[in-house]
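Batch manifest, entry 17 of 40.
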Amino acid sequence: MLKIWVVLVCMAAGAFLWFGGKSSLELWRYSHLTQLSKAEVTAWSVEKNGSSKFALKASYIFEVEGKKLSGETTFKNPFFLNPESAKAEGKKWACQSWSTWYSPTRPSFSSLERIFPYKSLLQAIISFVVFIYFFILKKYLMKISDLYQK
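Output type: structure tokens
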């Protein structure tokens, strides 16, 4: 019986560490991209992310305090099922004006999108609750088994 609890707690801890680390990294990225500057997209390309997932990638230049900087952003959403549809969407996006988010302490750290990591934080919170649940459940079951043994 003890081995099952160890496996369950280890699995819950692993899930919490994975989702907690992922959400921490995304939250750190979100919190550091605080300044906004006008950007000029110089190139659009399609990047393959999996067997049938394609994403748009933009190369751009922007100016901070008179200094020209460049960057690249691979957009998280939307994903496309084939490269042709991604290229068609890229042509539509090329007509838009863009702004870049960058870090005031390190302007080379930049992105065309700044998305708050709701999903990652929710996954981390849920995995933490499951992790705590197994500890509480084990204490409760041990307390009940002690009462029945007396």
